[in-house]
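step: validate -> pass
step: tokenize input -> pass
step: predict -> running
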Amino acid sequence: MIDIKQATRKYGTKTAVDQLDLQIPRGELFACLGHNGAGKTTTIKMMVGLLQPTAGSIEIAGFDIVTATRDASLHVGYVPDEPYLYDKLSGREFLQFVADMYGLPLDVAAANIEKQIVDFGLGGFVDQLAESYSHGMKQRLVFASALLHDPELLIVDEPMVGLDPRSMRLVKDLLKKRVRRGGTVFMSTHTLAVAEEIADRIGVMSQGKIQFLGTVAELREQLSSDESLEQMFLTLTEEEPANFVS
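step: predict -> pass
step: emit ->
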């Protein structure tokens, strides 16, 4: 589903992502871990077409993200780390706008919008203007909009930020359900307990490179440790500089 080959992204003289190789098959929930500035968000922005690699290539569902951006994007749902809405649109109007952007037929759009309203518990506020929403409400609406076209790949950047425990459980269950149905999830997160709980594999990024790729059990074996993922993560990334571009 995701095929990243020697992908590099530079910002002037700084290298945010350095010759990254990463392949993620269909039906996997993958968690990308790393300190601020490790290269996670830059990697995600390249995968969704917001940034172009300085070198290398990225394919989504067999489509090159640079030369076939539209084809690739139709297979992807994207939830950024900061939810962005149009303040003067209601939640329902925003969902309809997104459905129109994906070219969904009116009847399909209407059915999908109602499903997302139910799934994410949006009914209490979906007809209010977005300017009145809390961060958690915005995050739930953005999740709903990312799933309107039922994408094969869901890419989420820090999905748990600003969510209350009930909403966090809803999101975790949603991600696991999509993978059980054959979908693929790429998740960047600082919430290591969530990664340990639901991810099939993890990738630990440091200085724009993958320092470890595998399961939590394989990481424990590599480090000869029975500690928590949090402690193993700190051990693996203890030399990472703090001023890197994210």
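step: describe -> The beta strands are 2-11, 14-24, 29-33, 55-60, 63-64, 76-79, 153-157, 184-188, 201-206, 209-214.
step: cleanup -> pass
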